[in-house]
Each structure stands twice: as structure tokens, then as C-alpha cells.
Amino acid sequence: MAAARVLLRILATTDLHAEIRPFDYAARRADPSKGLSRAASVIARLSQEVPNRILLDNGDFLFGRSYGGLSDRGTRGVVAAMNTLGYDAGTLGNHEFDAGVGMLESAMAGIDRPLVCANLFLRETGAPFLPPDVLIRRDVEDVAGNRTTVRIGVVGFLPPSTMQSTGQAVSRKLIVAPVAEIAAERIADLRARGADLVIALCHEGLSAADGDDLARQLAGMGGIDAMVLGHSHGLFPGPGYDKAPGVDLRRATVMGVPTVMPGFWGRHVGQIDLALDPAPRGWRVAPLAAQCHPVARLAQDRIVALVPCAPAVLRASAPLHAEALRQSGQALGRVSAPMQTYFTRAGSCRATRTVARAMRRAVERKLAGTRWAEIPVVGLAAPSACGGRGGPEDYLDLPAGPVFDADLRRLHPFSDRVAGIVTDAGQLTLWLERSVSALAQVLPGRLVPSLVDPEFPAADFDLPEPATFRVDLSRPASFGPRGTRRGAPAGRVHGLELDGAPLDPRRPVVLATTAHRVNGGAGFPRPDGRTVIETDETVPLAIQLLLSGPEDLAAATAFRLDPLAQALALFQTGPAASLHRPALPGIQVRDMGVNANGYLSYLLAFGGEA
Predict the structure, then answer these.
(1) What is the phi/psi pair of residue 194, to 5°?
(2) What are the beta bridge partners of residue 573?
């Protein structure tokens, strides 16, 4: 009997970052907005609606802030929980290498789904680190109730920037090849082996602004029937992409390919529905629908779960949960002043500057006794919890008193290595221009609807310590969201000072940051040909050393915004910010209440005349 139409549903997760349960270990309380256990219930419901489905994961699943203090970083528990869902295949993300190749290989030994990655190779031999793809033979049911076979090819790709964040130990072993050199060959090979359709797992995001990103390049090659994106923690289809080049938001396609980018932390599940019609040679594939399903929603300023937790995931993760609770309650030191990230991007953030100070101390320890020991070191750090895609509840709010292991992971969730780079104050100014490009241009007589450009992740907003500076927002931003230079010349950052004294642009300084930044991560303007200082300390260890010794907290103010007559801007932050509102010199701040998205809005009057 001839086969009839086959309906196939692709379900996908991405950027789980070890968020298995709807629980915030830093705050030691439930968080219904996230977690694989809730995503698993959405997956079960969507699977029951159709006779044929395939479940995929798009990487960055292994490491996050929840279990960073455990001996194995929680990898065994994460793998056990994911194994209960019956994933058909998956790929790696850049953060899979955070704890080194050895721990990744140990974790992969327990994973019961095929892991594929087409552009990751062993540096010494050139051999693939993982199989580039997998061909899944799936027994399916057509619309007439008959059984037939469909061969599904799944290929995975890492972003080209992966090795920028891994540190020297990993980059000496592995190399990530450009996708353009690999993708067409792998797609053609899958087709030659009989693939009826090809699904690309691309651990890279989709830009809403320009049309020259990896997602569009892959989709434009031809031969891909569906695509799952990630890495940037964005949501597609979703707001902000209505005018993006090559994107049809109504059909949820990128260059004609049905695509999902299902957020992060298990907050969404991606769904792509395809129709497979019999053709003279195999099947003709047509997109039907693509969307992302949330596990929770905001209702009356409160996050409400839409589904219960899957019991199998809770059982598998019970030992991990118990150990994480115990670990998160261990005291590591004390702080005498509260630290929050509610006003980081308005220039006031003791928490982020304290992390920068910790990295500065780590580099100073490394430089002791060297020829660079007398050069001043400036730490640079960005907030890890500062709203944005994390939502209105995702801010650090650490009271004065004991500091626990969970607080340490909240300050900096990933085990990035601290590194330094020898340069000058002029390069530091350019680095800070990259950060404050996230702020909108503010002009007299106008109201800016959002002071912060949502295209810029908070994790790319570096603040210095102990240096301070001023910002002139009447000038246009000189960098785009991915660090690309815009036409506007640098000039927002001025009045750079170190310990209260003006800092000459030619004065030598050492920038203390992460190995990711030093290697060009996030498009920060890394100076070429300068000396790099590698340390053996991770950022969490550097913070722990700082906070476990004599108190050494940084001041809150990193920069001040210049006054601008009759200029207004709205600034959004977490609702609890009302308890900690700082004084912004020269700027009047008016509380405008909580908006429909759950953020507290402040009206900033740059001339003080609101």
C-alpha cells in the first residue's frame, strides 16, 4: 500500500544550563519560571498530540550556576535527568567546555542520546571530536494509519567563537572549524546516505538587526528542512524579529527554513511541525508551523507555572537537588554592605565592581615580582543577573551579612579563567565605549522609551574597578550589539580617572578580565600584539578569595551620566529595586510603577527637571 502524508513534530530545548528543577539555589526558594522538569511536561503534552515526534537538544545543557560548587559540577545528575526524556539526538554548546575536556568526556559517557558536532576537531590529529551527524531511521504512522519509515538526518554546529571562552587548556586540544567549510559537505553526505529530511542544530543565535549571521548562512545553503538555534538566549519566533532580514515571523522561517530558538533554562520548548508527502524519490517536505511554548507566564505581577513538574525528572534529580541545597548553604565570608544589580546599567553596582576587584587581585597576584608589577591593574566585569532575557526577577540582591556558596555562583556562574592583557588607558576607554554602547542616545527635548538597548546582553556590560568615568549620552553609540564598529566615532566615555586622578590615554595599564574577553569574546576591542597574562584562578575562586579575607568591597559608582537639559529616558529594572534606589548625581528619578512585563520603570530626567 502506498504511503500517505506523514506529519512529523520536532521538539527542541536549548541552553538548559543545568536548570533541572524550578528552584533558585541562590535565593533558596522555588522559581516556577524555569526548569527541565517543567519543560518535560510540556514535551509530554506536545508529544501526545501527534503520532510522530523527534526530540532534540541544542547544547549548553551541562553547566550553569545551580551546581557550580559541586565536585562534578552536577554533571551526573543533569545527565540522569535528561536521560528520562528520551532525547533522540543533541549537540554541544560553547559552555560544555567550561570544566575542561576531561569532565565533558566523563559526562558524555553517561548520555544515552547521540551527540553530534560537525565542526569540532582534535587539534593534534584533525579527527572529529564527535560524529558530525546521525541518521535516524524512524518508524512513523501516516495520516491513513499505515506504518512507514522516514530517515531523519541531524547535524550539529558550534559557533565559531567557542574557543574564545574555553581557555588555553581546551583550545590546545580542540579546534572549531568555520561552518561554511563544513556544512554543505555534511548536508550533501546525509542526503547521499538516504536522509529524507535534514535538521540542523546550530548553537548560535539569530540577529534581529543585520543579515550576516551563522543562522542565515546555514539556512541559505539549501538542503536544510528545519533548524534549531540557541546560544543567545533569545526567543524565535518572538518579538523583535518582525523586520529582521530574511525572516518571515508569521511563518517562523529564516531564509525559508522553519526555525525555532527556544530561549534558555527550560523556560520554553520549541516546536516545528512538518508535512512529508510521498514523492517519486523519497518525500517532499513542507513546513506547517513553528512556535515556542512557555512553561510559565506572568499574571498580576506573579509568575505562574502552566504545567506541573514531570515526576521522572524530579526522581532522577533528587540526589542532585539535596546536594545542591547543602552546598548552597555553606558560608564563605561576610560583606558589610548590600549588593544589587538593579542599577548596573545606570552606573551604580557594587556587586559587579566587586567581581572586577576580585579579578584585579588575581592578576596582581600573578604579576607580583614580574616586570609588570608596577603597572596599575584595572578589573573589568559584567553582571551575570541583570534582568533582560532573564526576566524581571533575575537580578542579584545580596544583603549585608554572610556570603554563601550560592551567592558566589550568582555573582559569576561560570568557571571562566581570569586573564590579563597589558595595554594602555586609551584601549581601556575604547573597551568602555563597547560597554556603554548598550545605552540609547539621549537628546534634549526627547523621551527615550528605553535607556537600555535590549539587543545588548547584560553579560556584555563591563564595568571597571578602581577606574571611574563619565558618559555623554548625547553622542551616538560606536559599537553594535555583537561588538561590530558603527560609523560613529568613540566619544561617549570621558573623564577617565584612576584613584581620583585623571588617567592619561598613553599610560600603561593591565586589564584584568576573563580568558573569553581576552580572546575576543563578545566583540570587545582586544588590542593586537599585546602581552597576555594567564592565571590559574577561575573567577568564582577569585571572588571567594576576596570575600573570605579582610573586607575589600568596591565602591558602587563606576560611571556618571552627564546632565542634558530637557532630556528624558525610561529605565526598566526589577520590581524590588524600589527598596534600593540609589542617588544618580544630576539626574532626577521618578518611580513610574511596574509595567505589563513585570519590570519597574523609572523616568530619568537628565536635566533634573522631570
Answers:
(1) 105, 15
(2) 600
φ/ψ bin of 233: left (φ > 0), alpha (ψ from -120 to 50), beta (otherwise): left
- When mean pLDDT is compared across 157-161, 221-225, 516-520, the lowest value belongs to 516-520
Residue 165: what pLDDT? 65
Residue with cell 575589600: 552
Q: Between β-strands 253-254 and 257-262, what pairing exists: parallel, antiparallel or unpaired?
A: antiparallel
559-593 burial, b if ≥16 CB within 10 A, otherwise e? bbbbebeebbbbbbbbbebeebebebeebebeeee
Please measure the distance between the N-terminal and C-terminal CA atoms of the chain and give it in whole angstroms: 76
How far is residue 34's CA from residue 17's CA, in Å, rounded to a whole number? 11
Residue 429 has pLDDT above 70, yes or no: yes
- What is the predicted pLDDT for the residue at 462? 97
Spatial separation of the C-alpha atoms in residues 57 and 106, rounded to whole Å:
19
Residue 109: predicted pLDDT: 96
Q: Please count the other Cβ atoms lying within 10 Å of the Cβ belonging to residue 507.
A: 15
Q: List the grid coordinates of 371.
A: 616586570
Fold of 329-443+452-561: 5'-nucleotidase;  domain 2 (3.90.780)
Residue 90 CA to residue 12 CA, distance in Å, equals 9
Reported confidence tier of residue 484, pLDDT bands at 50, 70, 90 = confident
What does the pLDDT look like over 305-331, one tens digit per residue?
999 999 999 999 999 999 999 988 888
The reply to whether CATH 3.60.21.10 applies to domain 6-323 is: yes
Strand intervals (E) in 436-567: 447-448, 463-465, 468-471, 493-498, 501-502, 508-514, 532-538, 559-561
- Give, in order, the Cα–Cα distances in Å from 367 to each of 19, 164, 377, 422, 533: 37, 23, 10, 11, 8
The identity of residue 56, as a single letter, is: L
* Mean per-residue pLDDT of the chain: 92
Q: List the one residue out of 231, 242, 237, 234 whose CA is nearest residue 290.
A: 237
In the block, which residue shows the cell 535527568?
81
CA distance 332 to 329: 9
Q: Is residue 283 within 8 Å of residue 150, measured between CB atoms? A: yes
DSSP 8-state code for residue 179:
G
Distance from CA of residue 471 to its chain's centroid? 26
Please tell me whether residue 344 adopts helix, strand or coil conformation.
helix
DSSP line for 422-437? EEEHHHHHHHHHHHHT
Could you tell me the sign of the dihedral formed by the alpha carbons of 164, 35, 289, 250, in that order? Answer: negative
Strand partners, 463: 381
Amino acid at 327: Q
Check: CB of residue 217 under 8 Å from CB of residue 245: no
* Cα angle, residue 538 at apex, residues 28 and 383 outer, rounded to 5°: 55
- 274 close to 258: Cβ distance less than 8 angstroms: yes
Widest distance between CA atoms in the chain: 85
Domain ranges of the chain: 6-323, 329-443+452-561
Is the CB of residue 477 less than 8 Å from the CB of residue 486? Answer: yes
Average the pLDDT over 467-480 and give the result. 96
Q: Fill in the DSSP letter of residue 128.
A: B
What residue spans of 274-344 are helical by DSSP H?
A: 311-328
Dump pLDDT digits (tens) for 227-266: 999 998 889 999 888 888 899 999 999 999 999 999 999 9
Q: What angle do CA 353, 357, 362 make, to 5 degrees?
A: 150
- Beta strands at 268-278 and 89-90: parallel, antiparallel or unpaired: unpaired
